[in-house]
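Data deposition worksheet. Section B asks for the primary sequence of the deposited chain exactly as it was used as input, without tags or linkers unless they were present during the calculation. Section C holds the resulting structure in token form. Section D is free text for depositor observations; keep each observation to a single sentence. Incomplete worksheets are returned to the depositor.
Section A, Depositor: J.P.
Section B:
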Amino acid sequence: MNIFKLIFLLLLNFLSLPAVLAGDSVLQDCSKILRAHDDSNSLEDRKIIVTESPLVQSFRKSKSLVYDSQAPRPLGLVRGGHMVSNEFDIFKLPQKLPQRDVFFGIGNNASWDLALRSDAKKLVLFDINYEPLILQRYFFRALFEVSESPADFYKYLFLKASQKHYEKNSLKLIEDFDTWEDFAWFEGEVIDPKVQRQELSEELLRRIKEKSTDPEKEKVLEIVKAFQDSYMNNGPDLFPNSRGSSYEVVLTLFKNRYFPTQAKGIFGLSEHEKEALYEKNVTFLSSPENFQKMKALMLNASYVVASVESLFWENFAPRLKANSNGATIYTSNVLEVYEKVMNREKVKKQFVDAFRSLELPVSFIETRGTKYHHDFEVQEMKAE
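Section C:
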């Protein structure tokens, strides 16, 4: 048996689906699993393509990282992809997707909401780049853990709140904070955002320190503080070589993704259509119940560093057991963005072939288009 087969067998034993659904510790110390790489590439070549930063090195040791392909990224990417989804029109997708137990999604917040819509029991975030997954693992996971409601999450992400924050827990709460000046007034309140940002930043770090059960709490505190410092004190970006990694950009993308006022302007929605988004658009912020479901998924999420062309997917698929309710695979618009260097049909055939022999339903979701206005394709793949 060659080394690659041995590695895959070791990995796949960790990812037995019944253990996931039963709540067993499927995330064993995967840092002890040898990481697959192509020996034909020199260490010097790999360093050019794979960011050899302290953050990446820490992430490689994380127990939640279940697979890490150290082979050079086939697209030659040096920058770290999109940290937050710019698919602001994802509300066009069905609000209720076929129920699947496992959700495999690209490493950003669009996967959160689609995992909710498919009623997933397990979330696996993947990306060809480390950086988006590091942000998910060490920043967003912490916000979910110490937040009790959508309003709490909003408060700690945007570092601002009002008395209204404690009275409402819906998307309409966020609408109240859509536009702020240097000083904001709410029902007699005078708020200095600069002072409040500092206070809420300290409050968040204190809550993480006191309440988090994360085995990597010290690393979480370090990254959360560094990311917020870049926002409040004009410090350096957490990922200087990545696209859209500054705190300001993350906040802007979140506003465009979740605030119906923003969607109204971008997509020319009527006031009635905008209001309908409040009631119908299923997101992790749209209700306390959705938030708690998303929180549970994030606290037990797994991470995979691999291309959609990786052999990992072909070797993983057979491990889904017949008593599960299948999987959802979401690739965002990766196949569209890199169509000149990646064969869409080859990649989709790879996924189809990987799951073809299973008597399990598999949903494949792909985003078409690279601008604000996207189309979405949901394909059901079943055994023939």
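Section D:
The longest strand covers residues 362-368.
The CA atoms of residues 36 and 69 lie 5 Å apart.
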